[in-house]
């Protein structure tokens, strides 16, 4: 770490460093864009675009002037966005007629709408990239590093505002920007490496700031903490944010009642529809529009029957559960309702306990035969948006899917084949470790167990691989039937399943999760929760009373018994098995009501398991963490170097300890320096222009019994002057000076001083 | 006293035996105390004059008339048992009036040199800026060379030879300002300034009736002064001190139209040596330099606006230039 601090570094080195930093800044926002294209496609185009922009900027840097370059960049940007508008079906004409709308679009992005939620995110990305890359690289090549940071920094800032650039990327980009300016400046002024330590300090400062202040809006880049530390419940994961649905590892189930539904038949209560899969989470593209009063939604194209539900929130709810497809909402909540591009309703504000609304849903009533014959004549709109898969989906995944659906010819058969395959080949478990990479792929190829999120994700992606438009939906299962037409839905009923599009019919739900297993797991959790409640409520209760209480909680035994049978049937579906929602008779397979009484008062083994799980998250040292630590360390060292802390530490030690004696002259000088340091701590340091004598005299005139009034101090001064200006002192005189200073410092040591002073 | 034959500074004189530092310090104290019997206040100026004499320098006293410039010079001269000459500079004063002339002796029928007033151990050049430059030059050359040349014959001046010149700071229209080159020959330029009320009261009390100068007696003699001067020459000036003086001079050169000359730096260190001796030390410390710098360098500096005092530049230098 010992550098030749005084050595000047050739400007070439600084130039390379500055250019490197500009590249880092560029790489930071390009990496954000890459994240988008990896999901929606176009990575290769993006790379080509970046490469050609860099080449073009390098060549043009020698040819055109900055103003021309700026114009060229603007033109590139305008052309890009014109193409985007053309693609997204708005047409370039919209710019002339509705600049406001375009601005609104940008505003929406800047106020935190992630790029991935844009319908044409890929095209947008390609439109966005060229201008800043070209301009910043052009300026960097021309050696104008500070200016080159402006377009690059603006691009990064924009991505920060959309929430796409995560903390780490922003950090790296910022460091690149600072580095570019700093090193560029050093190059221009011919600085030395000693001055570069300021840059290191700045780096560390930025890192430290970014760790303590969260400037980056909580966006997708803020991972939904694997391991479920944020919420840890299944529904928390599913509804990790209003427009996205995360996938996490091990989750818990909350037995809390979320809402009740008055409905003449059970249904899955859908809360969200997601179309874009990033590999580790689901994103809903597009924006919501407010639901006008009395507005009727289109509903499915095929035959439907009406299904009216009255939903009452029992806790705060950020979603509006409704049976698919809702067509109208009544009640107070209605005016706070908006509808997504995909046709589901969402509340604009959080529903509070007691909020009630009535939903009219148009439920599709397809017959398997109809579905088989539905064909593949999908509308373009459906084809464009519900076939997306992350770019790097492996061929193995596709091969496996093709293998599973080998015998199926129609989309319906494929869906059933996949559904059956997943149900039969994978176990249900809430205790899984979240895989790295593409979750769908990992689940299909590597994992043996998972829960609904994994099943639904895998099925959606598999069907898309087979060119069947599919979407991932979240919501709740029908819940516990407490009355003829009343269902109580708890947190543990949170669920995710799949909807497949059939022309002429609409979206039809499929259930890839093995129901019976799910039931038993959920059941256990409900029991556990109940047991724990009992324990906390009545700790002194006798065991038999507890079991009474448990039985009392299990009211809907009757209902669940018969439904349990259905569930058993459904869990082994055959090709003729009807998709879940088409079965109007019964679809309570996911009703989590406990079918039987508790097996024992407390399941200790499960408790132990819980404890283990709590301990399990290991401290993971990521590369990111290492880098940040390294930057902080280097910054600290540089800061210490800058602040002269080492020298000051040496001074402090030297103050109390004279150290090895050398020749008398330097010892006498040293004694005086120690005295000076001592006085500097007590009064003030000596000014540069002040002689030793002036300094001590100045202290003498201070009020109070200063050390400077001591005649001993005069002796030290005299010895020093003689040593420094009078040709030296002898051993005896030097020793006397050292002794005096030793005593003076000892007296000033907090504890030792007292005893030394009194012992004198 | 005025008729004491000045002893020529001949080369065959045996080498002078330097006095111990302590005795020189005592000597300085005695001289200052003796002068203080006449001069009220101005202890620092007195000390400066004494150290200038010991440092082989000449002193220019500049002030308004009547603050005791001449009295100070006389008191010092009286305190040392040596020859004291006084030249009253007037516009019609001729160079030969200062240096002396060859006079034809009728009896011996040959020319005989009539020593001018410059041949004294301490020469008071009163109101030096009233004489035309030609006459000023006669004195200033003597100051630099320690010798005068009359009619082709060079004559050494006595040892010690110290000029204390006074200069009138008012009436600028009727004076010939000393050129910078000639000012440079003075080791120090000092100012007395008006006494404060108590001091003035004291002056009045002393001078009404017999003036104390009339009863002032010498406290030392020429021999001793010569030996003390030798002591000062042997005072140690270590490298850091020389470097400090160089830095100070460098600062004035950077911050004024004309900065301190190398001659100025030499003078400064000589003055500092004398100051060290007066303080009883065998070596110069930065404080000696700091005390002497304003008076030793200030008059050699011409500021850009010509109005500002060169002393201010030196004061700035002392505040800005680090000691080590």
UniProtKB/TrEMBL annotation, chain B:
<dbReference type="Pfam" id="PF07726">
    <property type="entry name" value="AAA_3"/>
</dbReference>
<dbReference type="InterPro" id="IPR027417">
    <property type="entry name" value="P-loop_NTPase"/>
</dbReference>
<feature type="domain" description="ChlI/MoxR AAA lid">
    <location>
        <begin position="252"/>
        <end position="310"/>
    </location>
</feature>
<dbReference type="GO" id="GO:0016887">
    <property type="term" value="F:ATP hydrolysis activity"/>
</dbReference>
<dbReference type="InterPro" id="IPR041628">
    <property type="entry name" value="ChlI/MoxR_AAA_lid"/>
</dbReference>
<dbReference type="GO" id="GO:0005524">
    <property type="term" value="F:ATP binding"/>
</dbReference>
<dbReference type="InterPro" id="IPR050764">
    <property type="entry name" value="CbbQ/NirQ/NorQ/GpvN"/>
</dbReference>
<dbReference type="Pfam" id="PF17863">
    <property type="entry name" value="AAA_lid_2"/>
</dbReference>
<dbReference type="InterPro" id="IPR011703">
    <property type="entry name" value="ATPase_AAA-3"/>
</dbReference>
<feature type="domain" description="ATPase AAA-3">
    <location>
        <begin position="58"/>
        <end position="187"/>
    </location>
</feature>
<protein>
    <submittedName>
        <fullName>MoxR family ATPase</fullName>
    </submittedName>
</protein>
